[in-house]
Design goal:
This protein has a four-stranded mixed beta sheet, with no helix packed on it. The longest helix is centred in the middle third of the chain and has 46 residues. Helix 1 runs antiparallel to helix 2. The protein is rod-shaped and about 85 Å long. It has three helices and four strands, in the order ααβββαβ. About 50% of the residues lie in helices and about 5% in strands. The protein has about 160 residues and is an alpha+beta fold.
Length: about 160
């Protein structure tokens, strides 16, 4: 389930590498031309035609690489978030209780409340953030009453009132 954004980032990375390579070649050519001339007035054309544009291409290439890698990382984070939050719970298509789309339904539906010691959130037992973690423990009612723990924004647990 790769997003279309991942495919569009690659040309930006290739353009960045091409600009870096072209800039390096121009800088080397400019240096070679300047080194062969004794007088400054004969060195200026090499600086103007090779070295300055080469340096500009190197800067542009570095910016393209930075932008491309940042966009690639953002696309991967979006993909992971989508996999975590918008997954449809098992058996949701079988039950007729669906009030909306799979994105509207919370991922976790268990009534048992858990927390991780030292954490700041309380979760349902089948929340992907605590499911399968051996260190997760049942929520202490004193912590819930004091307001030290907040509800998980992913599984959206409801506080049980006994």
């Amino acid at each position: 389930m790769r997003t279309a954004r991942l495919r569009t980032v690659h040309p930006v990375l290739w353009a960045g590498w091409a600009a870096l390579a072209a800039g390096a070649v121009l800088c080397v050519l400019g240096w070679y031309g300047v080194s062969g001339e004794r007088y400054a007035e004969r060195q200026l054309p090499y600086l103007a035609s090779c070295t300055v544009p080469g340096a500009a291409l190197i800067v542009a290439g570095a910016l393209l690489l930075t932008h491309g890698r940042g966009a690639l990382a953002a696309a991967r984070v979006e993909e992971l978030y989508g996999l975590l939050v918008t997954a449809e719970p098992a058996g949701a298509e079988d039950s007729g209780e669906s009030s909306g789309t799979a994105a509207d339904a919370p991922l976790a539906v268990s009534g048992d409340l858990l927390m991780v010691p030292g954490g700041t959130l309380w979760h349902r037992a089948d929340c992907p953030l605590v499911a399968g973690k051996p260190e997760s423990v049942p929520v202490d009612a004193k912590l819930l009453a004091s307001g030290e723990l907040g509800p998980c924004p992913i599984c959206e647990p409801v506080e049980e009132t006994d």
